[in-house]
Amino acid sequence: MFVGYFTERPYQDPESGYFGATGRSIMDLGMSNGAYNPRLGADLYHRYLDEKLYAEEMGFDGLMLNEHHSTPFCMGQVANVEAAILARITKRAKIVLLGNVLPIWDDPLWLAEELAQIDMISRGRLVTGWVRGTGRESIAHNAQPPYNWERFQEAHDFIVAAWTRPGPFRWEGEHYHYRYVNPWSRPYQQPHPPIWIPGVMSRNTVAWAARHRYPYVMLATDLGPTKESFDYYAQVAREHGYEAGTQHRSYLLKVHVDETEEKAQEVGRKFIDGPSNPFLEGNQGNIRPFLQNLPGMTSRTQLLPTVNVRAAARSRGRTEADAAGGAGPPPPPDKSAAYREQQERLSIVTGTPDTVIPKLRTMLETIRPGSVFFWDGDGAMDHDDAMRSLRLMGQEVLPALREIGKELDLKGPFEIDPATNAPVVGRNEAAGDAR
Amino acid sequence: MCDGAYPAARGGVDCLPVVRRSDYALSSGGERVSDYREQEVALATGRLRVLCGGDGPPLVLLHHSWGGAGWSPFHVALASHFSVFAFDMPGYGGSERPEWAREPRDLAIIVARAIRQAAPGAVTLLGSGLGGFVAAELAVMNAVPLHALVLVGAAGVKPEAGEIMDQMMMSHADYARASCRDDAHFARVFGDPPGDDMKQLWDFSREMTARVTWKPYMFSRRLPPLLADLRVPTLLVWGGEDRVVPPECGAAYAARIPGARLEVVAGAGHLVEFEEPARVAALVAGLSRGAGAAGAAA
Q1: How far is B5 from chain A (nearest CA, A)?
Q2: What is the pTM of this model?
Q3: Which A residues in the span 62-81 are in contact with B, Cβ-Cβ below 8 Å?
């Protein structure tokens, strides 16, 4: 089993007045960066990189980064820069990008070059992941949402070609045009780095990932709908002549471990405090449905069961107000209820190692993923919160989790090759497969 | 229709039925709404729906970006002067989407072909908002003989001082509300609250709008240089309080199109023709009569 560590790297600035102090609006895409403090930004980037280093030291197999734009809940505008730094300063862990927002790249050759460079600097530890974005990204980089899915597919095909076809060659596609494709950098891993596809709600994307035999990473969705979505993946896989296994299933969930139950409960609440992802139930951010549900972005008839999960639905503008409705913010969330409900649904798992491990077992038994990512250190959590949890995870949770993984035969994508369903031999022994 | 190499994200519906507002049964003047008929124009690029009604010389109507409003009081007012052909532009309402279309000029090419089938000979061409943008593109192509050109709150030209309101950054309802001079007119034009068919029309239309005018939004730098060679009687109608396409855009059109006349209706919003249907229809009829007289004198 493969276990990774993730935080969205929120821009935490108590002085900004945005997060509870003065009641300034925290409407998504409604905040001015005039309040941005680059010195604070520098400190936070250092902090998050340090935590990744410690996560590797504590035994995590993967260090996951994500990318969002024009929002304080995620400082990974250029996640590839962070990935490049990690490529040099870490030794063993995979660097997992989940992921670059393909459709907003007008020049995907540049992305192919960046990723190949990161793969080389890390000596073959890059896992690439590609997403379609949340709507916010299409607004921020002004990419036409009706062509989002087309551009995703073509950019993928182009990058794989740029990595694998000896150049120079010409590319005249629907959305991308090059007269000379011959990047003077090629991926360290051959034929190219593993590609994992993270997502929440699009059946199109799940079906596409299954057709390509790419592992699909469900991002913090509820267990039941997540299982149903993986069932759909398996159905598409069978239609394409193979059986999906644990190596094709990956799951991200919020986990915080602390020294006492009281401390864990107190700190766990910080997931939905402060500048946390406005997708999360109970946080202070407000989503404008029409910006998340951009015209033509997602086929209205091709939604996964997970779209009905409240957080995902809210983020995509499918509850409260329909797309035609007004822009008025929803009523203030009941934070205590939201926190409690998410714990009950195992959307947030927090406690001491003793109480967390059984909950993780339930998750593993329910959806049988070959790889999982712990999402921690987020919202209003500070560096000490993150480091305490990382230490306890490394000392107690990860060893237990690996035992459960063995017992349940949850093999990850570095043990069973998702492309062939054959055991991985030879390459990629850097991370989880050695365990 | 032409499908690209990559499957697009598509909704479950390809076309919408005509919006039929029960309160359209009476025009603003109190008289009964005249009948109209629904026709189809079949082109290799897809089918187009056109609502036809009225008597008189032919007038082609191109709608705002939020879609064809059905047979509204403005249509009724025009129909007392003209044979009205109200097209759903390609990809809107009941007209099939050309997947390949990327800009309003593509829509203009298709609409020009449809006009030649539906209304052979010279027509008066009236476009509102995005429909005005398409009408201007169509006019500069000389693809259809034009009796007269009417642009109402037309997009297409970048304002110098202000900005064209960006519907993509607001909800459909807020955009529609901003298009009217006040809430009372919003309720009259769209219903209070707007019906589900209207909300569906807004949502459906916005997707097509995003396909053809996302970047740049609602203008083309390739249109203004072509306006100076237009030789067609042109009327520009703007609401004096248009918050969507600033009145300066009307002035910019007027400055470029030889002989064009700008009528600013004081107090009216972007949807001036829905707010004051009889008045705008009379302006159009006057232009058409004048154009006819000028044509006869020539």
Answers
A1: 7
A2: 0.91
A3: none
